[in-house]
Amino acid sequence: MIEIQDISKSYGQIQAVKNLSLNIRKGEFYSLLGPNGAGKTTTINLLGGLFYPDRGSIRVNGISIQENPNAIKNWIGIVPQEIALYNELTALENLRFWARVNHVSKQGLDAKIHKVLEYMGLADRASQSISKYSGGMKRRINIAAALLHDPSILFFDEPTVGVDPQSRSFIYHIFKDLRAQGKTILYTSHYLEEVELLSDRIGIIDHGELVAEGTFDELRLQSGLKEQIHIQFKKISEEKLEQIAKSPLLSAKSNAHGFVNTESCNYVGSNRTEDLSRLVQFFAEHQIAIEQIEIKPVDLEQVYLHFTKVDLRD
Ligand code: ATP
After folding, report:
1. CATH assignment at residue 152
2. 39 CB within 6 A, ligand 1
3. For residue 258, what is the domain's CATH number?
4. Entry pTM
5. At 53, phi and psi to the nearest 5?
6. Mean predicted lDDT score pLDDT of the chain
7. Cβ–Cβ under 8 Å, residues 166 and 136
């Protein structure tokens, strides 16, 4: 459905995207993850035809975006990272504006606007100025604007940044519904729990290059990480923490990411039995009394850290 072949894009000296190839299938929910500045927004903007790659090709439904951008724009809805709304206008007026920009037919336009407002749970606020909206409500209107022309492909660039938990949960259910409708979705987000639940496949990019790709289970296998061992212990002093945090077991783990504080330790590893016995022995040697041990499968955040070595929220 979307074939990206070997694209590169630079801004002067900065190479934002390097030889990137991706294939997004029809009806797939594909998440693109990467640290700040990895090239996610540039990729979305290239796919949306906002500018062209320096090299490589992008085809949507077999049609080249460089050769026939207008044919493709009708199929695509883009929700940008920045809220693209006029504060002094009402929600209705903003959506009429976006309808004009996206060449939505004037026929039955108010009915279409009403439908998307209803879908986004804001029908009763249609005539209110956007300046009175909360951050979460603005995000919902931002999404509504992209849905007006009923596109089959949607690009979401961090659509829940700065959103209150209630709106985030609402928007999460919208994503689930759009996915169930069979829309093809490219999504970027810093909320990895949501990415894990929603995605069919995940691509991880760093410095403009794809470093890993697959379903969450495939990525987990590729990382070699299996479980996280959470150990709760009797509170220790800051001096003792400093001492144990320097130990090779808890600090210099080549293939894992963990943390230790004065009350607990989270260890991410690949061999439950060995890891557990080493940890228990370690705490016994340091005369630290273990109170509770919990073992859980690794989550996307740890797998992501394995590939990028950078916290997504840094
Ligand atoms: P974030 O998570 O912070 O949104 P990102 O993964 O979306 O980051 P991009 O915004 O695509 O990354 O940026 C990739 C690189 O290109 C960064 O080094 C960024 O500083 C640079 N860059 C992006 N837009 C421009 C621009 N208009 N002019 C110059 N450099 C740019």
Report:
1. 3.40.50.300
2. yes
3. 3.30.70
4. 0.87
5. -70, 155
6. 89
7. yes
